[in-house]
Amino acid sequence: MSDTPKFEVIDRRKIKAEEEKDNAHPAPEEPVQSAPAAPAEPTPGPRLVVNEARREEAKEAAPAKEEPGLMDELPPAPTAAESHEQKAAYDASAQRLEDLIRAQNPAAGPQPPMGFEHLVQQFYVTAMLQMGAGTQDGQRPRVDIMGARATIDLLGILAEKTRGNLTPDEDRMLQTVLFEARMAFLELTSMMSAPSVPPPPPAKK
Q1: Domain boundaries defined on the chain
Q2: Residues near 156 by Cβ (< 8 Å), separated by ≥ 6?
Q3: pLDDT digits (tens, 9 = 90+) for 119-149
Q4: Which of 83, 84, 111, 135 supports an S-S bond with 141, CB 3.0-4.6 Å?
């Protein structure tokens, strides 16, 4: 059994359809029946004890079931009409939120649209923070080296999947950010794996 945490993608369209169906046809109320009397507790006696070694052998002999991948657990893709309707609702909700913020703070200008450079920058900043960047003076840096590795790997996947589809400026920015993040990771892991140097002996008087 893998220790990797799992998450489940829920198809909200199916849940919504079931709720509408239940509301349109409510289930009839069932008559209340009296619960049967509980059977008398058996008298204590000898119990069958299963040999733990045999139980482990049975588990090993049983064929292992392959765990379903994330792609197998995904619901069907939404239709083009569903995606268009959801995108329009999302844009309208985001605009209402921005209008509300600007009404409370008139000096705030409109938010710039998100672009590819914002995505790359988000990954880069996350990786650097996970490697302890931005720690204030006098404080001990908090390093999440495995989280930094995962974030840098995601940047690598992004570079592979977008190869040939980026402008020269976008590709140069992505390659530079990926190079800098990997260099910082190498320096940090080298410091973590280096043997500790003992302090020099005290000077003789």
Answers
A1: 116-193
A2: 178
A3: 999 999 999 999 998 888 888 888 999 999 9
A4: 135
